[in-house]
# Entry
Amino acid sequence: MFDRIAGPYDLMNSVMTAGLHHRWRQRAADLARVGPGSRALDVATGTGDLAIELASRGAEVVGSDFSEGMLDVARGKAPQLHWEHGNALALSYEDDSFDAATVGFGARNFSDLARGLQEMARVVRPGGRVVVLEITTPQNPPLSTFFSLWFDRVVPVLGRLGGESEAYTYLPSSVKRFPAPRELAALLHGAGLRDVRWILTAGGIIALHSGTVA
Ligand SMILES: C[S@@+](CC[C@H](N)C(=O)[O-])C[C@H]1O[C@@H](n2cnc3c(N)ncnc32)[C@H](O)[C@@H]1O
# Structure
């Protein structure tokens, strides 16, 4: 599915978020606290925007994904970065090999979320950072009403217009089954992270979780 949507993915992202996703990625990169001399891994990197944001801070960055179609788009955008085929649930990197690991809008697709988070924590050195940027379901009206209208009605129509009905019906269902912020924080803690915090933005639709490897 991700191979198929790789071409229009960036455009759909910008349309569906009114371009705000760039700002959210900047905030995720801030939380990763990387700079010149550090190494960062962006898992489920897709077309690579979060990896590119991390690299703009001066870090050496690896973007990893299991969709070659997505990686091809990322390679076209930033050939100087390292783009590697990989499964987020079984990363091929040694323990403690990065200063930070991030995932943007990818964690809700993991078939085993706890395992994916454990893998991110495993490859980051003690004291390094793990950051999860994800869509979350707002609990209170009026945002919850708008969210349900947008995701259940508008997004599938946009998907059909873009010729990818399945992917953009899957999107709302994947958001709905993703854990609420407090539960995700507990999973991050269980993965070995300390000082786990989260920030809600965009009226409570976007959650940025971060923690430090113990
Ligand atoms: C919605 S896209 C997000 C892409 C990008 N991170 C972004 O911020 O736009 C989800 C990505 O997760 C990847 N993905 C899902 N599960 C994965 C897994 N187990 N291992 C590697 N990549 C995975 C998909 O191939 C896809 O590129």
Q: What stands out?
A: Helices lie at 2-17, 21-32, 49-55, 68-77, 113-123, 143-161, 165-176, 181-190. Residues 149 and 159 are 15 Å apart (CA to CA). The radius of gyration is 16 Å. The chain has a mean pLDDT of 92.
